[in-house]
Amino acid sequence: MPDGIAETSVGAGTAVASSPTSAETPPQREHIPGEVGIWLFVAGDLIVFAVFFIVIALGHVQQPEVFAQARASLDMWVGVLNTLLLLTGSWFVAMGVDKCRGTGRSVASHYFSLAILCGVAFAANKTFEWGDKISAGLSPATNDFYMYFFIFTGIHLFHVLVGIGVLLLVRSVSRRPVLTQRDIATMESGATFWHLVDLLWIVLFALFYLL
Amino acid sequence: MRAIDNDPLFRKSIVFCAWTGFACIFFFIIGGVILGGMLPPLFNSAEPAQEFVRKVNENAFALRLGSAFMVLSFAMFGTLGAGIAAQTRRIETNPMFSIMQAIFAAAAMTVGVLVAFVWGLAAFRPELYHPSIIVTWIDFAYFMALFSVPLFGGWCVIIALPVFWSEEGKEPFPRWVAYANLWAALLYVPGMLIIFFKDGPFSWHGIVALWIPYIAYFGWIAVMSYALLAAVKQPGDEPVMKPATA
Lengths: 211, 246
Fold this sequence. Notes:
The structure holds 2 protein chains of 2 kinds. By secondary structure, chain A is mostly helical.
């Protein structure tokens, strides 16, 4: 077991090596990160966002010209930058969790700090993009494309802000002198939420900027 | 610690509260879905006032009966909420979250009952009301139900927090229930969009602002009712009662 991790529950958390010669050792289960509840949350949020994606796609089918014209007025590179920020943030989060599970936990909180910075940069970039559009006279009332754009990216931005709060909690947990299996599960759950935020953005990016 | 088997009245009370949750869903299906036209929405936020009046006149009896079932349904927010607060109280040394939960449950019940009142009022004497009054009643009902995100969402958050913050093994509900509460709170948020839109998916008849929060809310009631039935079987932190003297 890595240093600084206290084993508090049997069968939970990271895999523990077992003797291959022991006939009584139960078969090792594949480790599922986080808790059952976070996967319930992820599945639920994916279902809801699937509804959002269908609404956007229906709008695209019903008003192809309006959507194509409005889409052309978006700056694709702003979307690319935001995608890179979230992907980089996800990498930092994965590295932070990995460091907490193994050795080198002293640097884990730095990775989480960098991920938080990526989230803040995403929010700032999104705010500038919205401000630019609004100052150009574009708003949710302009047409259905911009209505969906502002509302659905706004709901996603709300997820990002919640995710930043979750990462602050994860960073705080990572700084505890001793990590229990529950602490590890908490960090994995927080990381899973951040990856969900990332995944949702990638689909929104494709629907709004690329199609 | 006293096993819950030693307090049969408490166990029965919680089971009663949990079943009022299921009854709440049942009566809403009769009152709000089959009769009252709240979901799927009988009215369309973008249609002219005359159309509201026509629909109210054509469905007056169903709307009145529906509102009666809805008031019965929504009153049960209080009993379900009291059960949840009582279950949370079992793990608290000094009550705090259970008090907040009871306050939110009382407010949710009040708002819910008013939704049903207003729905019934729209069909009470539509022949006397100016058409804009009918529109206002229906707007008012949906605003109370959907725009109250901090109330219904906040209730979910203060149910989730004591679960996350409890010592391991002493949670009032399993942790997945806490995640389900946070998810429900998140799903209510699109309801606040109704103030900006009168047509489309974000208006009070739309899929995003109406259907998602409503399904999430009644799904949440089912989850919490089930969780209460399961949780009451677990031992709590109640003080040991002194044995009765002969």
